[in-house]
Write a structure and sequence with these properties.
The complex is a heterodimer of chains A (173) and B (708).
Chain A: H1 2-17, H2 32-35, E1 38-42, E2 45-52, H3 54-71, H4 95-98, H5 103-112, H6 132-145
Antiparallel strand pairs in A: 1-2
Helix pairs in contact in A: 3-6, 5-6
Chain B: H1 11-36, H2 39-52, H3 57-60, E1 71-73, E2 78-80, H4 113-116, H5 119-122, H6 131-135, H7 152-158, H8 167-178, H9 203-206, H10 209-217, H11 233-236, H12 249-260, H13 274-281, H14 286-296, E3 304-309, E4 312-317, H15 333-341, H16 343-346, H17 359-372, H18 390-402, H19 405-408, H20 446-455, H21 457-460, H22 473-484, H23 494-497, H24 511-519, H25 522-525, E5 527-528, E6 531-532, H26 542-545, H27 548-556, H28 576-589, H29 607-620, E7 628-629, E8 632-633, H30 643-646, H31 649-657, H32 659-662, H33 675-686, H34 695-698
Helix pairs in contact in B: 7-22, 8-22, 10-12, 12-18, 14-17, 15-17, 20-22, 24-28, 27-28, 29-33, 31-33
The chains are: A mainly alpha (173), B mainly alpha (708).
């Protein structure tokens, strides 16, 4: 009888504990490049697709509308104006030049133009044409396509850091 | 057992009672414990911990409350509890991608997330409070979360006009129009064009039976004798205008027989001036001159031809008209001449302008097409076709209706079928149970179905009549996005009432200008008050921009303003009178409110002012990075060598003040010029003149005169 009772108790205990042992909380993990909002092929290696999030995609759109004419060697219309200019504008994916520059510097450079920051006046100010949000998007795009890749830690510290970040980044919602 | 012990329970019984009470209490506790451990509550607690580890805890927890959060939009019938777990959704501080989900903020979009919630755009089950229920297909809720790749479809549910932030959706809609899906399907918001495929009533006069057979079999003419596609069209180029139908040999023969029997009126041979023919026929460079003329007239702005450079064959040219690489082996020479002289006599809705041909040009160009744009092997793979029998013709006629050819091609006497393909107006909200997957080995989701059906219709339905499309992956994704946006919401439903209609009222002016506008098909390339093509500049404000003499000389001999353009305006050989009528109308009607001519007499600016302007242009603002003056400068903006003859000074001033106010999507950034700087730069630009237009041009057809 005792054996039976203890068996019954054990079974009940298991039943009670079971609902508590659910799977751990987790965000659904997926392949980031497949589920990215958009992607851009690395200019040096077309097989390497760089996944872009929403903001970076906005930046890509603005880049291909306003900036591509001087900051790329091929444009949607064919020839590029880049070779035409002295000093030669930097390519948008030129990480070795752009990675050390802070977001704030790039934001000011695009907003106020080259002459305001002691660079070439050929770079016009975009602050009255693009909104600050749009310029931030362009910078996000610059960071995404940079070769060598941009390492946020190497540059200025991001405003907030999250300790619990598992290191795995998912671009899904 | 004695008397006293009668009412006392035995120790064993007492033990059992104690145990069962404990069990009972535990069983009662199951429900509260389960409730406490609910998924969303765990996310809530985790969010508090997450916020406490950050410096801005107070801000992140300002709106926090421990229950279920809910956004209710009664007008849309939407209940959205996503923010229960996605707690930081509208906190700009947690926007960084390093923040783990579900706490990351939503990127900044034109709509406020707190007002609209999530499911309106992302789909999924808004009522759910469990991760799986909310994001995935479940028995009770078939609409899963929409992959972010196709999220622009949700913008398109309400916004029927194209938005600048949704390039993928816009491209998909463009493809829906371009691929003529509307020929067979009903698609809300896309009107059936006046002409989809050519009118075939007289096609027997234009092409041979063998050519029709070949075309039906392989609607891409760029194939070599082995049947290989030499231009890798399926990967790099656009779809052929005529899609590929899967026709059997008897079907090909029958259709070719039927179509080649359609002769209608025989085409009369055009009598060229014998002097022109005599002068050119003997010359060895006849064909070469023809090619020069073909290029000078910029036929390639609309038609592409295959060009082989360094062993690589590529199509060069536009896609408004058909590709012409092998046109010489295709069409009957008499038909070609008659067509070029008046395309609308054959196809009333053709987009081809009616050129003013001189006999010499017509002779040179047709000779070039007939002798150079040819391929002797074109019909090499076509089997011997006997003269068509009445049975074959009858069979072909029946096929023409059954296969749906009549949906896109007109033949007098054959009624087009109605509702030939399924209605696609609510394709984007179909549930999986409404779709038939057949034997296709694809995941059973709406997106996979759409893509499979376009790429291989037979795999989902063995008797599908739909032609096969070979789209690039990006185009397939764009087309899927556009189809997903067609949710068929009725205008009186919540979302239906939010519709932002597309506005493109047609612009067809009357009068002498209207006639020329139709003749030269200006609206195919240029935009007028929101209507027309986008290949060439928008002319809605041309009257404010350009000076009349310049307009006339440009219309008569269009040179290109931007050297980087591959497509240019063709030379129509307009008469002086026609150019005058066009320039007058543009000058009088197509004006901007913000360009005021009052108080801006040409004001012979002092040379000092102009030289100050030159300084500003070259040194302070370095406009030469984009504009060319002389032979130096950039290719991005228009060449300014002749701007003094070309533009009105009032336009230049208004432009420098705010370019986007005149042309919203122009590339030129808005600068902070002072008024004096604007005066100076304008004065400088107005001194830049090249080949002053002949006085006589200014007086042309100018009974009513232009603006001063």
């Amino acid at each position: 009888m005792k054996v039976k009772l203890s068996l019954l108790m054990f079974a009940l205990g298991v039943l009670l504990i079971l609902p508590c042992c659910r799977e751990r909380l987790r965000a659904p993990q997926t392949d980031s490049s497949v589920n990215a909002y958009d992607s851009e092929a690395d200019w040096n290696n077309p097989d390497h697709l760089i996944p872009l999030n929403y903001q970076q995609t906005e930046g890509k759109r603005i880049f291909y509308d306003k900036c591509v004419w001087c900051h790329a060697d091929a444009t949607p219309a064919g020839p590029s104006n880049r070779s035409n200019l002295t000093p030669t504008p930097h390519l948008i994916n030129d990480g070795s030049t752009l990675n050390p520059l802070s977001d704030e510097f790039l934001q000011n450079l695009i907003t106020l133009g080259g002459s305001a920051l002691g660079k070439s006046a050929m770079m016009p100010p975009w602050g009255r044409t693009l909104s600050q949000e749009e310029i931030r998007a362009v910078i996000a795009y610059i960071r995404a396509v940079a070769q060598p890749p941009y390492q946020p830690s190497a540059g200025p510290k991001p405003q907030y850091s999250v300790k619990q970040s598992s290191g795995k980044e998912d671009s899904t919602k | 057992m004695n008397h006293e012990e009668m009412g006392k329970p035995s120790a064993r019984l007492r033990f059992a009672f104690a145990i069962s009470s404990v069990l009972f209490v535990l069983a009662l506790a199951i429900s509260p414990v389960k409730d406490l451990l609910q998924e969303w509550k765990r996310y809530k607690r985790e969010y508090v911990r997450f916020a406490q580890n950050r410096p801005d805890t107070k801000r992140l927890l300002a709106d926090y409350h421990p229950g279920i959060d809910q956004i209710w939009i009664p007008s849309l019938n939407v209940v959205d509890r996503c923010t229960t777990c996605h707690s930081g959704i509208s906190e700009p501080a947690v926007l960084a991608p390093s923040v783990t989900q579900p706490f990351r903020a939503h990127p900044v979009i034109p709509h406020r997330t707190k007002e609209w919630g999530c499911v309106v755009c992302h789909r999924g089950q808004g009522l759910a409070t469990e991760v799986k229920e909310a994001h995935q297909t479940t028995l009770a809720w078939e609409q899963p979360l929409l992959s972010v790749q196709y999220i622009q479809a949700s913008c398109g549910v309400c916004h029927r006009n194209d938005l600048s932030d949704t390039p993928r959706l816009n491209r998909g809609r463009e493809l829906l129009v371009h691929l003529n899906c509307v020929g067979c399907h009903r698609l809300e918001g896309i009107e059936r064009p006046a002409m989809i495929g050519p009118d075939l009533t007289q096609v027997g006069n234009k092409v041979s039976r063998e050519w029709i057979y070949k075309w039906l079999k392989e609607p891409r003419t760029l194939t070599d004798s082995n049947g290989n596609v030499t231009v890798d069209g399926y990967e790099n180029e656009e779809e052929p205008r005529m899609p590929q139908f899967r026709l059997t040999e008897p079907e090909l023969r029958g259709l070719a027989s039927f179509l080649s029997s359609l002769k209608g009126q025989p085409v009369e041979t055009y009598k060229f001036d014998p002097r022109v023919v005599g002068a050119w026929e003997k010359k060895p460079d006849l064909v070469q001159q023809g090619e020069v003329r073909f290029r000078q007239m910029f036929c390639t702005t609309c038609h592409s031809i295959a060009v082989t450079r360094a062993g690589e064959t590529k199509l060069i040219g536009g896609d408004i008209g058909p590709e012409l690489s092998k046109a010489g082996s295709k069409v009957n020479p008499d038909w070609l001449v008659a067509w070029l002289r008046n395309p609308q006599a054959f196809q009333p809705h053709s987009l081809m302008p009616r050129y003013q041909w001189s006999d010499e040009d017509l002779f040179l160009v047709t000779r070039y097409i007939q002798t150079s744009l040819t391929d002797t092997d074109l019909l090499g793979t076509v089997p011997k076709l006997d003269p068509p029998s009445p049975d074959e013709i009858q069979f072909g006629r029946r096929l023409f209706q059954e296969k749906g050819c009549a949906s896109c091609h007109v033949i007098k006497g054959i009624k087009p079928p109605t509702d030939f393909g399924p209605d696609l107006s609510s394709m984007g909200s179909k549930t999986v149970s409404q779709l038939l997957f057949g034997d296709a080995k694809v995941p059973h989701t709406l997106i996979a179905y759409i893509q499979q059906k376009i790429a291989d219709p037979v795999s989902v339905n063995p008797v599908a009549r739909m032609p096969q499309y070979h789209l690039k992956p990006t185009d397939l994704a764009a087309l899927t996005t556009a189809l997903l946006s067609l949710t068929g919401e009725r205008p009186d439903s919540g979302i239906g009432t939010l519709r932002v209609p597309a506005n493109n009222p047609e612009f067809h002016p009357a009068g002498a200008f209207g006639e020329l506008y139709e003749r030269y098909k200006c609206y195919v390339y240029h935009r007028f008050n929101g209507y027309g093509g986008t290949l060439a500049p928008d002319l809605s404000l041309e009257g404010s921009r350009a000076q009349r003499p310049w307009l006339i000389s440009f219309l008569k001999n269009p040179q290109t303003l931007r050297p980087s353009l591959t497509f240019r305006m063709p030379q129509f050989n307009m008469t002086d009178q026609e150019a005058g009528i066009l320039a007058d109308y543009l000058g009088m009607v197509m004006q901007s409110r913000s360009v005021s001519f009052a108080g801006t007499p040409p004001a012979d600016a002092s040379p000092q002012l102009a030289s100050l302007g030159k300084q500003l242009y070259e040194v302070k603002y370095q406009c030469q990075s984009c504009h060319t003056i002389g032979s130096a400068g950039g290719y991005v903006g228009p060449n300014l060598n002749n701007v003094g003859n070309w533009m009105n000074s009032a336009w230049i001033k208004a432009w420098l003040k705010n370019p986007q106010a005149l042309v919203p999507d122009t590339l030129e950034p808005r600068r902070d010029f002072t008024d004096q700087e604007i005066e100076a730069i304008t004065a400088y630009l107005m001194t830049l003149k090249q080949n002053p237009p002949a006085r006589k041009l200014a007086g042309i057809a100018g009974a009513q005169g232009g603006r001063p």
